[in-house]
Every structure is written in structure tokens, then in C-alpha cells.
Design goal:
Layout lengths: L17 H8 L7 E3 L11 E7 L12 H10 L4 E3 L6 E3 L2 E6 L4 E6 L13 H12 L17 H4 L16 E5 L2 E5 L7 H4 L10 H5 L1 H6 L7 E3 L8 E6 L13 E7 L2 H9 L5 E2 L7 H8 L3 E13 L10 H9 L3 H8 L5 E2 L24 H10 L7 E6 L3 H18 L4 E6 L1 H9 L7 E5 L6 H8 L11 H12 L2 H18 L2 E13 L3 E2 L1 E3 L12 E2 L2
Parallel strand pairs: 2-11, 15-16
Antiparallel strand pairs: 1-20, 3-4, 5-6, 6-8, 7-8, 9-10, 10-11, 12-18, 13-17, 13-18, 14-18, 19-21
């Protein structure tokens, strides 16, 4: 489950107030926030606007970007959804999914639903979409989400120069118009959660025939349809789809996504009344947002994590003691306090603390700030030679701020004097990391798709991951967890996490806390920590 979202968190202020931070954290809510001000009508109609950063794609299988997924939440109904309160998986476009062995799944879809162009949604609409995303040469970002399905390897040969031996997944069988049988490569108890990700939404014939044209004018099966075309770097307009036959009744008639280049600008626009919702208030603006918006500002636990990835195939980073020394030289508490206003939490695990099975001290001494022990460990490993290059994107001012802190701490605590920055555009950085062309540590962010440890383990450490790390024992334990249920599954995943923390290809840094604010024009604001984000269909408008 590869969701290497490149969040564009933005924040500028370095100052922090401990007292106020504690006050703000005290306002934290559950995984989802729902409010209905007294003046917000519980009736359909009206229009509202949402601040957004430019998406990369609007074809579901082509993107794992949280900005794109926010728009797709209105346009498409995937088979399942996650309850915003607790992450429980529920049917959406599907009516049911049945299995006896966690390998063969029979999915039954709702009948009588259509795409926005009137084309009937059938089981074949799902099979076509999944096959297109899974076909390696298409290069769609969500490709690895389909790796659990039988036949995936034939579409994605790993040998150099090899070509696919099939165009479709052998594990998909269209039984009839509303029934799809899915055979997985191995037992996978988390499969229903996977069905909630937008990449599993159905596609009409036009999408597979002309994906580039579809990308700017997508035709979905959700409660909203596109109004016009995506105007890049400016806006995306949605309007209610009158032919919608699913369970999500849309409240507002229209939604305007206004695209901003930074969250700081979007926050200013929210203050000025020029946009109604900002789902990611910059951490540095917490105090101001609380003062200005009161009950219309929320801080919620988040599964989003930041890491420092390490190129383990580079001989200079091959020794785990080097990687642990770097981890122990980083003052997570000081950085989160100074740069993120104390809102983000220093990481003590690979997974966020809202995830079932999270262990608060899983990382142990490796994630504890201990400059003396870090230097001793580095010396025992033979020290570090040559320049140390740090890779990050230019899409958020805070990235350079915390990288500067890390650079200074590596200089002061480990004696590595030649630390250099490699800052670039998000798309360039993503391409460079995916191709393994980086020569040093890099910022890695992970936004959860669903609340499971497995989502982190499979998502970050998938075969061919950016760090280049692999471990057969780790793979076996993840597979053991996939085949199990409940506490047995969590126990296997935790053992796999221990191996990842022992080898440390990714250094856990901090756990985000999501902050949102909205205008008094709207109510029924429900925002979750999963792929859905703001539940567009539920928002009501007061005028």
C-alpha cells in the first residue's frame, strides 16, 4: 500500500509558547471533528469553498496525493468507506464482501447506479479500473495497492528489461453485472479496508481509453460531478449530481476548490472570508487560529508521520550503528517545539499513536536524544566520511527549518561538518527518490490510508522502497499478520516493526496533529484522518 504522499505542510514561525501549547493540545478532539453551529441549517442547498494545494492528478488510480484525494472524495464512491469516528470499514458502492479464507473475496455492488455521464456502473467498471492501475507500463501511482491480487506479478515483472506477460489480473473474475470475485495471492484480512481507497473506485470506459483527457475532466460515480474542467493552479468546481444512487446524500449544491500555492496564503484568505474551509492550518498559526475561530478550529490526532529516510545501499549508511547514531543525535522535542509550536509529537514508534497496536516506546533509546551516546556509536562504527547531503522538497517552509536544525545537530553532536542541502520541487524529488538517485538522507512523509500498522509497514517498506532496505524475516512477519486477525495480526505486525526499528532504514521523527478551521457560513464539518479528509457531502451552508 504505497501512499508516499508529499504533504505540503507550511509553517513559518519559529517561536513557541509552552503554556499555550498545552492549552491547545487540551482542545484536541477524536479522529474526526463534527460541528453544527446553532445558525447552520441541516438542509440541502447553497455553495461553499475549500482551500486546496494543486493536485497532481484527478484520475483515481493515478494519484496517492492527499490534495487529489480530497477532490476525489466528492467525485467517486469506492466500494467501501471508513467511519470517520473510529476507522471502521463500511460498505459504500458495495453492498457486501464475503470470504471464507481471506483469499477469495466475493464483492456484491449496488445495482442501478450510473456514472455522471449516464453509463451504467457494473462489476466490469471496477475490474477495468483495477487492471489499468495494476498494469505496470501505465505507471499509475496507485499501482502497488493492487499487489495483493493474484496475477499482479505478471503485470509487473521485476527483472531488468522484462515485459509483462499479461494485461489483466488473473485474480479478477466478473461473475455478473453486480458481482466481482477477487482472488488474492495470499490471505489478507485487511482487504476490506483497502477497498476504501479511491484507487479502487470504478472507472467508465472513457477513462481507460483516454486517461490524459479524463484526468482534467473526470467522470465519477459519487454525489458530486465536475462543473467544467480542472483549471490548473486556479480552481476546481463541483456541483451536485442529480442522478446519484448511492448512500451519500449531498447537502450543498456546489463546492469550489480554490488552489493556493501555500497554506500561509490560504490561512490569510480564510481570515479574510475568501474561503470557507482550510483542512490543514499551519502549526505555527495554532494560537492565532484558536483565537480567531474558537469552536470552528480543531486539533485532531493524526496518523501522519515524518521520517528521515536513509539510503542503506550507500556504504556510508550500510552500518545500522551509523543510522542509529544519526537518530540519537536529533532533538525531536526541541524541533517540534520550536518549529511546530509543540503541536506535533516526537515519534517513539514507526506508527502514529492513534493506530490500534501502537506502542509508545517501540523505538526505545534509538529515538531518544542522547548526543554523547550517538557520538560514541558513530565512532565505534568507524565514523562518517564525505559530505552528508539532505534531500527535501521546497513545498513547505518548515522542511528547510527542521532540516537546518537536523544539520546543525549532526554537526554539533556527531562532528559531521560538511552537511549540504538538496532542495527541489516535489515532483523532482519524488522522481529522484523513486529511482534511487539520491546520495544522502531524505524527508519521507506518510499519510495513512486506513488505521492499521500494516498500512505503514507495507507502505514504507514495500519491495524496491526508497531506502533500498529489505529483510526476509520482516516480510514473513508482515505476511503472518496479513493472514491473521485481531490481536494475533497486531502481534505479528509489531514484531515486524521491531525488525524495522532495529535496522532503521527510516528514522521516525514526529507524529502530526491535524488542524483545521472554517468560516461561520458552514456547519456539519466532518474531517477524518484517513484518505477521505473533509467529508464534502455532509457540509451544510448557512446562506
Amino acid at each position: 500500500m504505497s501512499t508516499a504522499h508529499m504533504n505540503t505542510a507550511r509553517s513559518t514561525a519559529l517561536a513557541a509558547s509552552v503554556a499555550l501549547t498545552l492549552t491547545l493540545v487540551g482542545t484536541a478532539c477524536g479522529p474526526a471533528e463534527s460541528t453544527k453551529p446553532n445558525n447552520a441549517p441541516n438542509k440541502p442547498g447553497g455553495a461553499y469553498s475549500v482551500a486546496l494545494t494543486e493536485p497532481d492528478h484527478l484520475l483515481p488510480g493515478r494519484t496517492t496525493s492527499s490534495y487529489s484525494l480530497q477532490v476525489l472524495q466528492g467525485l467517486f464512491d469506492p466500494p467501501a468507506s471508513l467511519d470517520p469516528k473510529n476507522g471502521t470499514v463500511k460498505p459504500l458502492a458495495a453492498l457486501s464482501w464475503l470470504t471464507e479464507d481471506n483469499v477469495v473475496w466475493t464483492i456484491t455492488f449496488r445495482s442501478g447506479t450510473t456514472f455522471h455521464n449516464g453509463e451504467k456502473v457494473t462489476a466490469a467498471s471496477y475490474a477495468d479500473a483495477w487492471n489499468a492501475a495494476a498494469y505496470g507500463p501505465n505507471g499509475w501511482d496507485s499501482n502497488y495497492y493492487f499487489a495483493q491480487i493474484k496475477g499482479y506479478d505478471a503485470l509487473n515483472p521485476t527483472e531488468e528489461g522484462a515485459k509483462p506477460t499479461a494485461r489483466t489480473l488473473s485474480g479478477l473474475k466478473v461473475v455478473d453485472e453486480t458481482t466481482l470475485q477477487v482472488t488474492l495471492k495470499a490471505p489478507f484480512g485487511q482487504f476490506p479496508m483497502l477497498l476504501s481507497f479511491p484507487a479502487f473506485a470504478p472507472l467508465p470506459k472513457a477513462a481507460v481509453a483516454k486517461p490524459d483527457a479524463f484526468d482534467v475532466a473526470p467522470i465519477g460515480n459519487g454525489p458530486y460531478q465536475l462543473d467544467g474542467q480542472w483549471e490548473r493552479n486556479q480552481k476546481i468546481k463541483l456541483k451536485k449530481f442529480p442522478g446519484y444512487g448511492g448512500p451519500r446524500e449531498a447537502m450543498a449544491d456546489r463546492i469550489d476548490f480554490k488552489i493556493y500555492t501555500s497554506r500561509e496564503t490560504a490561512f490569510t484568505e480564510l481570515q479574510a472570508g475568501n474561503v470557507d474551509v482550510l483542512t490543514t492550518v499551519p502549526a505555527a498559526n495554532s494560537m492565532q487560529a484558536k483565537r480567531l475561530f474558537g469552536d470552528r478550529f480543531s486539533i485532531r490526532p493524526s496518523g501522519t508521520m515524518d521520517y528521515l529516510g536513509l539510503p542503506v545501499k550507500d556504504p556510508r549508511f550500510a552500518d545500522p550503528r551509523i543510522r542509529k547514531a544519526i537518530s540519537m543525535a536529533i532533538d525531536r522535542q526541541g524541533i517540534t517545539q520550536a518549529i511546530y509550536n509543540g503541536v506535533y509529537k516526537p515519534a517513539t514508534s514507526i506508527v502514529g499513536d492513534m493506530i490500534p497496536g501502537h506502542r509508545p516506546e517501540a523505538c526505545g533509546k534509538t529515538c531518544a536524544y542522547d548526543p554523547a551516546a550517538a557520538k560514541k556509536l558513530l565512532d565505534e562504527a568507524g565514523g562518517f566520511e564525505g559530505p552528508l547531503e539532505l534531500y527535501f522538497s521546497n513545498s513547505d517552509a518548515t522542511y528547510e527549518q527542521w532540516m537546518t536544525s537536523v544539520a546543525n545537530q549532526l554537526k554539533d553532536n556527531l562532528g559531521i561538518q560538511d552537511v549540504r542541502f538538496r532542495k527541489m520541487a516535489p515532483a523532482d524529488l519524488s522522481s529522484l527518490l523513486n529511482e534511487g538517485r539520491n546520495k544522502g538522507p531524505f524527508r519521507q512523509n506518510w499519510v495513512i490510508d486506513y488505521p492499521s500498522i500494516q498500512n505503514y509497514l507495507d507502505g514504507l517498506y514495500y519491495p524496491g522502497n526508497r531506502s533500498g532496505w529489505s529483510n526476509r524475516e520482516f516480510d514473513a512477519l508482515v505476511a503472518k499478520g496479513n493472514a491473521a486477525k485481531g490481536t494475533e495480526a497486531i502481534a505479528a505486525y509489531q514484531q515486524a516493526e521491531d525488525i524495522a526499528l532495529r535496522d532503521l532504514p527510516y528514522i521516525p521523527l514526529w507524529n502530526w496533529q491535524d488542524q483545521s478551521a472554517w468560516s461561520d457560513r458552514i456547519g456539519n464539518v466532518v474531517i477524518d484522518s484517513y484518505a477521505a479528509g473533509l467529508h464534502l457531502d455532509r457540509v451544510t451552508v448557512n446562506d
